[in-house]
């Protein structure tokens, strides 16, 4: 019996030693090192758990990949989803941010974007903050890549993979509906027509908006202008005579009724056919996952017969 007890004790001790060795051998999370949009090498010891977002698109990406609970601060314009607007704001209106407020939130990551200047990034870096500068994507593939980049920084890679797969399926559904032989609907997208109705602002060919209009089965008449964003004279607008008017400035007071009442605009085909629609510009101006919402909305407005 005494020998049995000794053997049992040795076995238990050996098991404890193996367990301890196994625990000690458990690998820790590897550092995350990525190159940001300013070509800087950024390293995190582990996925960020306290994130300050300095752009609405960044905020929307973080919530979409399931990292909303890790966001501790946001810029003035981050209002989607609703819960994001309840977070402390660090500024952004008129391009002014409170470095003191940002630092007080003790972030392990500040996620900047192209609306933020390199000078602002340097100021935060000089305070010892880790800042990742996320460049704007040029197309939907670039947007998917941004989702995965942010997911790496936040430790949400599996969630991002699922999101990207879902978004790609939705985009493919639009592509399947808008066949190559579908008639192209001419579109004028108004960014600002209330300041000067004789020279409304619109988006040109080198913009995400123009890409989305094309993918939705439309032809953006702003593609004829020089520059990504430009004014189109009323005379040129009448010559182009778009079939549909989309009011991206609806949030600033533009309404179909006001547009129809503008001097000279009643000659436009879109006005005659009552095809003037308000549009949530956030869906196409914020380079995040809601771009796909924007694509679907555009497709249904331009080709309602295909989405009954």
TrEMBL record:
Pfam families from the UniProt entry? Peripla_BP_2
The superkingdom listed in its UniProt entry is Bacteria
Q: Which UniProt keywords apply?
A: Signal
Q: Which CDD domains match?
A: BtuF
List the GO biological process terms.
Answer: cellular response to iron ion
Family, according to the entry, reads as follows: Belongs to the bacterial solute-binding protein 8 family.
Give the protein name, as stated in the record.
ABC-type Fe3+-hydroxamate transport system, periplasmic component
């Amino acid at each position: 019996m005494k020998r049995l007890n000794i053997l049992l004790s040795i076995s238990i001790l050996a098991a404890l030693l193996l367990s301890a060795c196994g625990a000690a051998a458990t690998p820790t999370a590897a550092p995350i090192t990525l190159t940001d949009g300013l070509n800087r090498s950024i390293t995190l010891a582990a996925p960020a758990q306290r994130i300050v977002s300095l752009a609405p698109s960044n905020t929307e990406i973080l919530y979409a990949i399931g990292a909303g609970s890790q966001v501790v601060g946001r810029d003035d314009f981050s209002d989607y989803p609703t819960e994001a607007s309840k977070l402390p704001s660090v500024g952004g209106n008129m391009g002014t941010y409170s470095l003191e407020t940002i630092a007080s939130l003790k972030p392990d990551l500040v996620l900047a974007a192209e609306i933020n200047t390199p000078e602002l990034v340097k100021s935060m870096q000089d305070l010892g903050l880790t800042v990742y500068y996320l460049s704007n994507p040029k197309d939907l593939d670039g947007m998917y890549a941004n989702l995965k980049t942010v997911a790496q920084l936040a430790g949400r890679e599996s969630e991002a993979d699922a999101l990207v797969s879902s978004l790609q399926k939705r985009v493919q559904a639009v592509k399947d509906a808008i066949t190559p032989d579908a008639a192209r609907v001419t579109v004028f997208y108004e960014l600002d027509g209330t300041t000067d109705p004789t020279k409304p602002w619109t988006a040109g060919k080198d913009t995400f908006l123009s890409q989305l209009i094309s993918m939705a089965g439309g032809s953006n008449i702003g593609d004829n202008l020089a520059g990504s964003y430009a004014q189109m004279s009323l005379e040129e607008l009448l010559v182009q005579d778009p079939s549909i008017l989309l009011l991206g400035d609806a949030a600033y007071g533009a309404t179909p009724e006001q547009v129809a009442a503008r001097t000279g605009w009643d000659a436009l085909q879109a006005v005659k056919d009552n095809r003037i629609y308000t549009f949530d510009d956030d869906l196409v101006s914020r380079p995040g996952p809601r771009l796909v919402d924007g694509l679907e909305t555009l497709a249904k407005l331009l080709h309602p017969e295909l989405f009954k």
